[in-house]
Each structure stands twice: as C-alpha cells, then as structure tokens.
Amino acid sequence: MLRLILLLFLSIFFNQFSLANDEDNKDPCLWENSKIPCIEIKGYIPNSSKFSTPGINKRIIKKKDIIDIGAVDLIDILKSIPDINITQSGPKGQQASLFFGGTGSNHTLVMINGIPINDQSTTQGLHDFGVDFIQTIQKIEIFPGSSASHFGTNAIGGAINIILEVDYKDSFKFSSDKDVNYELAGNKTYVFDSSSLNLKVGSVKNETISARGNSDDENDELKNYSANINYENFLNNNTRLYNTFYLRQTKAEYDNSSTNQTGYKGDNKMGSFQLGLENLDQSNKYNYILYYNAYDRKYDERGTADTYESKAIGLKYDLSKVIDDKFSFGLGSDYKYDWGYFDNNGSYQASTKGYSDNLAIYGNIGWNIFQKSTISFFGRNDDHKQTGRNNTLKINFEQKFMNSNLGFSFMNGLRNPTLYEMYGTDNYGYSGNRNLDPEKSNTLEVYSNIAINQYLALSLRSFKSNIKNNIEYINNQYQNDSDNVDLNQSGLNSELNYKTSNTNISIFSSLLSSKKENGTDQLRRPEKNYGVNLSKKFNSKYFGIYKLNILYNHYGKHFDTHSSSFSTIEMDSTDVLDMKLTKNINNRDYYIKISNLFDENYQRPHGYNQEGRILKFGFNY
Fold first, then answer.
1. What total number of domains does the chain contain?
2. CATH assignment at residue 489
3. Residue 269's domain spans which residues?
4. I need a labelling partner for 217 at 20 to 30 A (CA). Which of 37, 102, 130, 313 fits?
C-alpha cells in the first residue's frame, strides 16, 4: 500500500512539470502514403448488429498500449486487467493458467480474429497462455462475462480475442539485457492499387531463473518464433477478400521438481489459417470465414516422449442488417469439427483419440426503443455430437445519460466436455464418459461508464454468476456433479481514467468472491487486486521530450496448494512495479525498461519461482 501511495504521489508531482505541446503528441498516420487515409482496425463480433452492439461489453488493448508497457508475452498484457488472475509455473515460456471472473482455467475462450483456438488435445480443453507472445499481435479484445451466445462453448468466464490484422506501419524492434536475452519483431506491408500484403515476424529468447530450483541452479531457457501473413483484396468498394496465416513455435525447458530439473524440454507448435469474404456495406454486412487450426506439442522427459496433437476445421457465416432507425438484426451459423490425440508415457500413462463436431445457429435483435435506450436479444443453439442441442441467450438493456451510460445484462454460459473427458484413458483405471452433459452458467451483470468531465472517467462493472452441472473426477471417471450445489462467483471491478494530451493514468481494482461447493474460497483467486497504469510525456530543458510508463500491480492474498505436501496454504500478497523510459531520436524510439523494479521475490503458484528485477535496453524503428 505504501508503494501505491508513493506512486500516486509521484504521478501527481510529475503532472506539475511543463508539458510537451499538443502538436508534439498527436499520433501520426499509421503509414506514410498520401493515397491511403488513416484507418482504425475494428474487431469483428459474431452475432451482433448496429443496435445490439452497445449491449456487448468489451475492453480493447491497442498496439500502442502494447508498445507503451513494453509487453513481451500475452501475460504482460492480461495481468493489468482487474477481472483476470494468472498463475505461471515459472519464468516466461512455462505453462500458465488464467482465471476470469473467478471461474476455472477452462472457462475462458481464446480466439484469433473471432475464431476459437483452444487446444483440444489438453485434458480440459484450456488454453496455455504461457506460450503466446505478442510480436505479431495488432490488438487484443477482452469480453468479460459469459459470451456463449456470441462465440460458443468455453466462454463461461469470458473471452479473449487476439487480432491479427494488416499493420501498415513498417517497423523493426529489438531489445536485450545483460544476459543476452532478446526480443525482436519486424513488420513490412506492401500496398497495391486495391490490395495489401503484410508480413510479420517475431522471436524471443529468455533464460533468467530456474522454475523450481534456487539461484545457483540451471536457468530454464525459452525460445519463441512467430510469423504472421495477412492479405486483403478489395474486389469492389464494399467487398473485401482477406486471408490470415499464423505460425508459432515455443521451445522451453522445464523442471520436474526442485531436485529433478535437467532433461525436460517442451516443443509447442501452433498454426492457424483463415480465409474470409466480407461485405462492408453499412446497412447490410455479411462475412464468410473458412478456418483451420492445428496444434503439435511434444515433451521430452529424459528420453520419455509425450505427444499431443489436435486439429479443428470450420466454416462460419455471419449477417447483420439495419431495418430502419429503430431496428437491426443479425443471424448466422458456425460448423466446427474437432479432432484430438495424445499419448502420455512414463510413470503416468494416459491417452486419448477422438473427435466431435458442432453445428451452431444464432441470431440477435437490437431495438433502439428510445433516443438513448436500447434493448438487445441474443440467442444461439449448439448441436454437439455427444451432448445434443443446447441453447444460450443474452438479454441487455442500456440507457445513456449525456456522456454516461448504465446497462444490465443476463447471460447464459456453456462448456461442452473435452475429448479427453469423453474418450480418454490412463493407467490408474480412468475411462472416458460419453454421457456427460455440458456445464452451464447464468450471469447477471450491471455496468456503467461515467464521464465525470472531459479528462476524468469512471467505469464500474458488478456481476454475480453460478455454474451448474460441474464436470468432476469421481471414481475414476469424469461425471457431472449431482448434488444440485452450484459454484458461485461475484465481483465488483472499477477503473478510474484520467486522460489529457500528455498524461494517461488508470487506477483499477477488483473485488472477487469465488466459492467452492462447501462455501470455502477457490484456490488462486485473490479477493482483492488493484493497480495503476501511468503513461506520461515530459518536455525537459535538458533531455527534450521523453515518455514515462509505469505499471503497478497488487496481487492480493489467496489460497493455494502446497507443491510438496499438497495441503491448502495461504499465499501472501505481492506488489510488482514495471517502469519504462522512452526517448525518440532520429525517428527511433530508444527505451529502458525495468521489470519488477522492487525485485519482489515470490512464487505463483506455490513452488514455482517468478522472475526478479530485469533491466532491458531496446529500440523501435
């Protein structure tokens, strides 16, 4: 708390310094081409239309935000979101789990350009956030609360959408530290008369600490490579043909225990291909998308190889139409085929092989009932191979007051069982259960965005949700919980933003209650999180214009499982502060970044070390 007070004092103190003039701080056009105007890259939200879109809560992390804080991986971005808690089994590149709104790590849907990419070869179909790096990412969209009526299964806690789009600003970025770890990224776009081709590449090397050892032990190395190709062709003024191709490989060493550290390596490969045809007419929009995702993961545990593979192919159609100045509607369908396989050897042996498919039909209606009031209805039916037909819906009402709003939403959630839960086996007698029902949830949400004045704004979001038909491991088999006791979550998130042409300060907090069936707290979900995100430009007499970015995170006390005794223990809170100084010289941004400035020593989860203070130097051209 003292550090937070100090940080707030410094931000207020800095605000008294002379500011750079507004002309120096206006964002330039994203690329230098007089024939093409500046544009804003907008995310595509399935099952929405003009008057139903206000009923969709969404938070946007832009490329500028990613650059400002000096993010290396996806975790660097998501740790500043009040509603999200993250644990990672060691330094960068290690397995990481995310808990959205107090729900489980398998209750967050992850997408690329609105297409789900959750790995079906994992036991519970969750996404490993530790292997995703941001060198080719253009924007990130975060959807809090159940989003099943928009995106389908898994989005009980929320959804995260990674935007890979054309970046018209050619650039090269490089940073390094005293240990010769590095991060580099390059972007090049070719613009033609009616089309463009965008090429992005990225690479990260990181070797700082041992995941489970002490300071004298070997450091676990990470190497990441990513490539993204985006192509778009405007067939006419309203119709766009586009293609996204993404490849990512993450190689990481890991530890089996504090005394068993060497000889363990993972190789995680992922690929995604999307081909789309979009009509851009303002009153009548449609979008066809053909997509294919593939994972290939291998783990070498001192000569014992574990192999995991999964593939998904699908076709999606989405339409939105404006009827008049009061009504809009949308409809669409989505067919997806999932196939997965894995073979786990060694002392613990498990395997699975199977497939599932799902056909979804959905629609929405938006009604501008009064000049500043909208009502939205969203519905979706998923016909799954094993669980059959399941309906989800969302109802929203939003009222605007001057520059503020107040909204209410009721939402359903859905998680179908994974391939392992249906078809898997292991050497301890487990066998899959094809008669599982999906997990379902209900969420009630109240939110408001209040513009206090032209500089100050406050965002509030409260929610209460429950999850029923929980899939649990009982008597060597996954089964739906039959005691009619739900898992319950509730919370209040707030964010206070102060923004001028030179200063942007965000103070965020989260209060969370996430309970087990017996009423005790869920593990790894702190009741209190808060932090500050500061971005400020200065005009110094001696140094000219430079920029300061500070990100402070307080991660509250919580319960966890002891890594050796497996008992439930209380983990202390942590205070982590990152700082970055940037100076533009000859069209190059040179910067110094210090991660974990106070050198906080902590484990999250218990038994897995997190990185201490790291100093990096870099430039962005």
1. 1
2. 2.40.170.20
3. 2-620
4. 130
